[in-house]
Specification:
By secondary structure, the protein is mainly alpha-helical. 79% of the residues lie in helices and 0% in strands. The protein has nine helices and no strands. Helix 2 runs antiparallel to helix 9 and helix 5 packs parallel to helix 9. The longest helix is centred in the last third of the chain and has 67 residues. The radius of gyration is 28 Å and the shape is elongated.
């Protein structure tokens, strides 16, 4: 630490160090590892007949519906992981060109593609329009950048809450199925009692399996979308770091320079 302080690093070295701390890990790789573990678990459950038993014991098919929602949501999460990984690569290339002293971006040319590149383009346009009339501020544009990077990440929270609510709905349906045979039951009719016990067991199975499916599905979806949220947050922090250190000061110097 003392050597770093004594060396008095330049602005570029500071940004590089900050980027190494906040550079996002590959969310696609994280998703694939987690999905592989889940797939192996489901294969084992199917091999031992537990999944078949859960599906067969649920005549309402709520458990199956929860499983389908989980599959669709996982594919959406994969798509978001790929998108964020692509944006992160574009942002790294843009930051490297700016930190290394490339000046063409000041005219709005050669900035590149991606959400972060669009943000830098907006900063250049705003600086040109403002001139030297007032101090440059990118706060509002950073809010727009955060919204664009987040995009449809909220779909994960919606799906997680949906499967949880479906599990609770299945619990209520199961208890209704369990308690319905009791109404009008004749305590002296042994055959009716045995039939009612069978129906009550079926209702209890529906309640338990749907609740379990809802809880497990909700937890798995939340874990998957943590990869996307973490990668998005670190990408945003990285973009803020290099724009505040390199882009905004360069635009302010250009605006205050005599024409």
């Amino acid at each position: 630490m003392q050597e770093i302080i004594k060396s008095k690093p330049s602005g570029g070295a500071i940004v590089v160090a900050m980027r190494r701390l906040i550079e996002p890990a590959d969310p696609v790789l994280s998703w694939m590892i987690f999905a592989s573990v889940n797939l192996l678990t489901f294969v084992l459950l199917w091999f031992y007949g537990l999944l078949q038993k859960a599906l067969a014991s649920d005549p309402t098919h709520i458990t199956l519906f929860i499983g389908l929602i989980y599959i669709v949501t996982s594919l959406h999460c994969l798509w978001r992981c790929v998108t964020i990984a692509r944006e992160a690569r574009a942002e790294r290339q843009l930051a490297a060109s700016i930190v290394n002293g490339q000046r063409s971006w000041l005219s709005g040319a050669g900035i590149g593609d991606g959400v972060v590149a669009d943000h830098v383009q907006s900063l250049v346009t705003k600086s040109r329009l403002l001139g030297s009339e007032r101090k440059f501020d990118q706060t509002l544009l950073l809010r727009v950048l955060a919204e664009r990077l987040s995009a449809s990440n909220a779909f994960g929270a919606f799906s997680s809450d949906l499967v949880m609510k479906l599990g609770l709905f299945g619990t209520i349906v199961g208890f209704i199925m369990m308690l319905a045979p009791i109404a009008g039951l004749n305590a002296e009719d042994q055959t009716a009692i045995k039939s009612s016990m069978s129906l009550m067991s079926e209702g209890m199975a529906v309640a338990m399996y749907t609740t379990l499916a809802g809880l497990v599905g909700s937890i798995l979806i939340k874990i998957e979308y943590q990869f996307v949220e973490a990668a998005t947050s670190r990408l945003f922090a990285s973009a803020v770091a290099f724009t505040e250190v390199h882009v905004v000061p360069a635009l302010e110097r250009r605006a205050s320079a005599p024409q």
